[in-house]
Amino acid sequence: MQFKEIEELIKLINKSNLTEFKMKDGEFTLSIRTKKYGKGKMMPTQTQIVPVQTSMPVHQTVAAQPVAAAPAPVAAAPPAAAAKKDGAESEGAKDSKHIEIKSPIVGTFYRSSSPDKDPYAAVGTRVEVGTVVCIVEAMKLFNEIESEVSGTIVKVIAEDATPVQYDQVLFLVEPD
Fold first, then answer.
1. CATH hierarchy code of domain 78-175
2. pLDDT surpassing 90 at residue 112
3. N or C terminus of the chain: which is more exposed, having fewer CB within 10 Å?
4. pTM for this predicted structure
């Protein structure tokens, strides 16, 4: 389609009551939208010409995405590996009769209230029901996580200042 033909088409659409017009011709698509207001008042016409390569298969077009999109699946792999690791440790914990303290929310795990303070709970720490063992930050709120069992911490599973998921094991406790 020639430029003169496009200009004529735009003029015709502006004179009509059409608010949107789309047309495909060979290797390009023409899309014209107008915003009409009451009593003949109009906004300027918006014209968009989009070249389309019809000879290229769709699966090749998808493969030609920017390189920045490729790392997303790679970034998703470590949490899956971490989940398997936690799952394996959870099963081991059940076999060894340790009780798990799990995260009740999704957030960032902190062992202490600030970097210069001692952790709430470490390996060998004796905890009672209601003892604060860590903090999980979620949406700028710092939630104190309390032990639901009495016993001694035998293993700290989660790393300090790392994201944790709902129901992820944080500590293993040997009950009294």
1. 2.40.50.100
2. yes
3. C
4. 0.48
